[in-house]
Specification:
The complex is a heterodimer. By secondary structure, chain A is an all-beta fold. Chain A is built from no helices and twelve strands. In chain A, a hairpin with a 6-residue loop joins strand 5 and strand 6.
Chain lengths: 116, 114
């Protein structure tokens, strides 16, 4: 079974600085998707960024970028120029790419605090 | 506006009193799913549905039922709720094409069972 591990329960960063959230996963599949979701106090699950495993290029979305290391099964999220609105719980998630149950396997989350 | 709508958003109930959490999506998605979120455990899948009348168990299905009689609706039924079902519940949907891999989530339903 696939597992996703987030080893940092909590992180904090000064406003305008850069922070990296870690995620590792375990799978025997060769093709899959990886995601980072943000959950602010409103509880809404917001997709931050997505990476397809077959793509070597790291995904970027404005201030958010990932470092995808397929051989190491590592998928970290870098947030640049941190803003107060970035404060949230962040979840790393894995999904098989094959047709069928589109289940996301989530990590346990990292709570990010932004220090003004 | 494309959205997944859950109701109720908040509910406090007592042990054994049947309840239903509704979920509706307006994106004509084939795939729908329910998750529960618990501290320290992340989100775990309860049930999923590939299409109308096609449902299957996820990782934590005990104590729950679902039905998919219409494409847009996927209610979660707790026949006899127990305190260990106190949780935050999310409904999610996707087009089922498998290519994009993106799930659209509802806003969550906070359930407390006393």
């Amino acid at each position: 079974a696939q597992t996703v591990t987030q080893s940092q329960p909590e992180m904090s960063v000064q406003e305008a600085e850069t922070v990296t959230l870690s995620c590792t996963y375990d799978t025997s599949e060769s093709d899959y998707y990886l995601f980072w979701y943000k959950q602010p106090p409103s509880r809404q699950m917001i997709l931050v960024i997505r990476q397809e495993a077959y793509k070597q290029q790291n995904a970027t979305e404005n201030r958010f970028s990932v470092n995808f290391q397929k051989a190491a099964k590592s998928f970290s999220l870098k947030i640049s120029d941190s803003q107060l609105g970035d404060a949230a719980m962040y979840f790393c998630a894995y999904r098989r790419s094959s047709f069928g149950n589109e289940k996301l396997t989530f990590g346990t989350g990292t709570r990010l605090t932004i220090i003004p | 506006e494309a959205q997944v709508t859950q109701n109720p958003r908040y509910l406090i109930t007592v042990t054994g009193k049947k309840l239903t959490v509704t979920c509706s999506q307006n994106m004509n998605h084939e795939y729908m799913s329910w998750y529960r979120q618990d501290p320290g455990l992340g989100l775990r899948q309860i049930y999923y549905s590939m299409n109308v009348e096609v449902t299957d168990k996820g990782d934590v299905p005990e104590g729950y039922k679902v039905s998919r009689k219409e494409k847009r609706n996927f209610p979660l039924i707790l026949e006899s709720p127990s305190p260990n079902q106190t949780s935050l519940y999310f409904c999610a949907s996707s087009s089922g094409a498998g290519r994009t891999g993106e799930l659209f989530f509802g806003e969550g339903s906070r359930l407390t069972v006393l």
